[in-house]
Amino acid sequence: MGRTDRASRVIAASPATVYDALLDRESVEAWLPPDGMRGRIEQWDPRPGGGFRMVLTYLDPADSPGKSSAATDVVDVGFAALVPPERVVQQAVFEADDPSFAGTLTMTWQLTPTSGGTEVTVTATDVPPGISQADHEAGIASSLANLASYVETSGRQ
Q1: Per the database record, which ranges form the Activator of Hsp90 ATPase homologue 1/2-like C-terminal domain (predicted)?
Q2: Domains, the chain, ranges and CATH?
């Protein structure tokens, strides 16, 4: 139906460690915001059918106007499927008046064991047309880099 964006990275940690970082509130708050943003989780329910609400704030809103306000993106994320330690499927809806950001974006985080740790592949489907593909793929890659740094330097491997 909509566009599909994808990014992947090998992280020097076990699939179980990476999976845990995908479902821990403090961890997600630390690594999910891409470069140029900070995040705050307002609600958290890490189970199938549960989810979270996150407010992402642009550090410099002049360069990146927000979807929800001049400086923020607010997103409600539901956990559609949780398969430890292999996959997390999220369905995200942005709070926005602009119809180009409407719809449900599905993010699948696939964790595959490799000799170097875990290959994490993020596939985003039904991406709203208001989100540019280049910006979205850069944002996913930034979040993956943050995730790698978070689990590799925290001693959680």
Answers
A1: 13-152
A2: 4-59+70-155 (3.30.530.20)
- Provide the whole-model pTM: 0.90
26 C-beta neighbours (distance < 10 Å), count:
10
CA–CA distance, 4 with 140 (Å, rounded to integer): 12
CA 109 to chain centre: 9
d(CA 14, CA 113): 7
Of 16, 105, 88, the residue nearest 47 (C-alpha): 88
Mean pLDDT of the chain: 91
Question: Tokens in use for 112?
Answer: 């595959």
Tell me the per-residue pLDDT of 104-146, one tens digit each, with 9 for 90 and over. Answer: 999 999 999 999 999 999 999 999 998 889 989 999 999 999 9
Contact in structure between 143 and 33 (CB atoms under 8 Å)? yes
**Residue reference for tokens 């925290």:** 154
